[in-house]
Amino acid sequence: MAKYILKRILYLFLTLFIIASITFFLMKLLPGTPFSNQNRMSADQLKIVKAQYGLDQSVGVQYVRYMVGLLHGNLGTSFQFNNEPVTALIGQRLAPSMQIGAQAMILGTVLGILLGAVAAIRKNTWVDTLATFISILGLSIPSFVLAVLLQFYLAYKWKIYPVALWDNFQSSVLPTLALTALPLGTVARFMRTEMVDVMSSDYIELAKSKGNPNWRVVAKHALRNSLIPVVTIIGPMAVSVMTGSMVVENIFSIPGIGEQFVKSITTNDYPTIMGLTIFYSFLLIIVYLIVDILYGLIDPRIRLGNGGKE
Amino acid sequence: MDQIPQIPKEKFKLVHDENNKEQEKIGTPSLTYMQDVRRRLFKNKVAVVCLTLLSIIVLISIFAPVIAPHDPNAQQVTLSNLPPKLGNLNIPGMNGYQNMGGHMVDAYKQAGAPKGTSFILGTDYLGRDLLSRIIYGTRLSLIVAVLATLVDLLIGVPYGIVSGWKGGRTDTVMQRIVEIVSSIPNLIVVILMMIVLKPGLTSIVIAIAITGWVTMARLIRAQTFQLKEQEYILAARTLGEPSMKIATKHLIPNLSSTIIIQTMFTIPNAIFFEAFLSFIGIGIPAPNASLGTLLSDGQKAFRFLPYQMWAPAIILSIIMIATNLLGDGLRDAFDPQSSEH
């Protein structure tokens, strides 16, 4: 186990190194300039500004510098946002993103498990059909479509929640709901398949024939055993919530990292784009790692040699 | 030795002659695998409905130049932001009336539109016909999806087959590459590619395909590993068929179900990415419409002109739902065991 974790952490750094390198060189290939009024600057001014950001050196030197900085946890300085260090920029904006992300993941998973379990228990009835329909809707309707609809009805028309901005819990409700649909759909679908499988297994038959009441069989045996594989889809779910949050944060003007990312893209702010790319990748790889380790711990049948996958 | 008395042939009689014939009779014509798949697919009502819906949408987008009532990029600024109007029919919400300061006003008359003008889904902020834009937008979104899926297939399938077929060191190296590519979040790769490449159709396709092939390659590799051990492959090898021929003649036909099913799940994914990129403004450049750009335009005016958002939102959702459900139906049809337990 320890060896496996060590190997995975090694891979993590390798992957991050590759991502950082690719991002760096891609950014150097970018057309356009980060300085919005370059045309009005004299050659000397341009030289000074370039020197300030270290853009006067050769690409090789810049690369080494960036990588060394990265090792020290320094992601460079933003070109646009008051010359702030990128790490500070991310730090300020992390909390709102994390909050709505976590709320959506938790809500989606819990509701998804319930929906999937109900569908499996009432298999081939209208309850099952309805639950399947809901999960397909959740899977299919993009979060930004949902976000706009929620904003129009719940905020603008019926004035239940604030339209946008970020101050208290109330303002996090709509973005959370918009992001919840996808995890809900994914989990419900997965849960149903697993649970149907488990419900037809021998130990459930045994538990039933011993005269256990139905709810107890479901709660003690079926639910528990179907929950284990659900852990594996947390990783992909985190990715989709993150994807969704980029637009959803924009729609609700939430000062989060997703909104920052989109803003940096439209303003050619290379250091921030690079920093956020690396940060996002880091976050996701960590999530995947934790999920794999968790899965190995929960279910000893899984051979870790296989990368924690089936 | 006593002679065994000969029994005349006529004395023998087949017992239950009729019964046997009945049992031995082949009642239904034997079906090939594909016929069986088709039969199961068409028995699935949901899949049939989705297939019909998608066919209609695809046909409309193929014949968009004939069907679209107006040029999707023709601007008529005087006729901007007109509400939906269906001929002279007086259907609430479709009669060209708009709520202005508390009472309903005929927006068409106010804009000074010539008599008889009507836009079924209204016009946008530049006076472009929304229905035509949606038809062309769907067309563009579908083109992106189909091209991205094709590139996916062209990279993923050969990659998976080679990796699975060769095995050993080749497989290890190829799988390490897959592992690294798949551990990079694909959205980030897509966005990076979009920033670097010139915005447009080709770059979206490249950006989506560059990460999308991994899943396909993985599935194909796993399948190839299984197929490799089958007798007919062994027979083909013993007969000295070249690997290339085995791959095209034996492997790909047997992989077709995996390929088709995976394709059905790649298409909605590509549609989503295109819409996503266009929505945040780095996708299809103006003035061309795609479902993503239409949504993003609609969202800006949603407060006051909700109809501009509804139409693209509904079409996008229908395409996504229908492809997902059809994918499910196809999976059940190809692999009936997957849903029978």
TrEMBL record, chain A:
GO cellular component: a single term: plasma membrane
Record's keyword annotation contains Iron: no
Where found?
Answer: Cell membrane
Any one GO biological process: transmembrane transport
PROSITE patterns registered for this protein in UniProt: ABC_TM1
- Domain ABC transmembrane type-1, by residue range, is 94-295
Entry keyword Membrane: yes
Listed transmembrane segments:
9-30, 100-121, 133-153, 173-191, 226-248, 278-298
- Superkingdom of source: Bacteria
Main location (coarse class): membrane
Look up and give the membrane topology term: Multi-pass membrane protein
Q: SUPFAM superfamilies given for it?
A: MetI-like (SSF161098)
The record's section on Gene3D superfamilies has: MetI-like
Pfam families from the entry? BPD_transp_1, BPD_transp_1_N
Keywords attached to this entry? Cell membrane, Membrane, Transmembrane, Transmembrane helix, Transport
Q: Which family does it belong to?
A: Belongs to the binding-protein-dependent transport system permease family.
Q: What is this protein called?
A: Peptide ABC transporter permease
Organism, scientific name: Companilactobacillus nuruki
UniProtKB/TrEMBL annotation, chain B:
- InterPro entries, A to Z: BP-dependent_transpt_permease, MetI-like, MetI-like_sf, OppC_N
Keyword Protein transport present in the record's keywords: the answer is yes
- Compartments in which it is found: Cell membrane
What keywords were assigned to this record? Cell membrane, Membrane, Peptide transport, Protein transport, Transmembrane, Transmembrane helix, Transport
- Span-the-membrane segments of this chain are 46-68, 140-165, 177-197, 203-220, 259-284, 304-326
Q: Where would I find the ABC transmembrane type-1 domain in this sequence?
A: 138-327
Origin superkingdom: Bacteria
Principal subcellular localization: membrane
Q: Report the GO terms under cellular component.
A: plasma membrane
- GO annotations under biological process? peptide transport; protein transport; transmembrane transport
The keyword Transport appears for this protein: yes
Membrane topology reported for the UniProt record: Multi-pass membrane protein
Q: Which SUPFAM superfamilies match?
A: MetI-like (SSF161098)
Family classification: Belongs to the binding-protein-dependent transport system permease family. OppBC subfamily.
Identification of the protein by name: Peptide ABC transporter permease
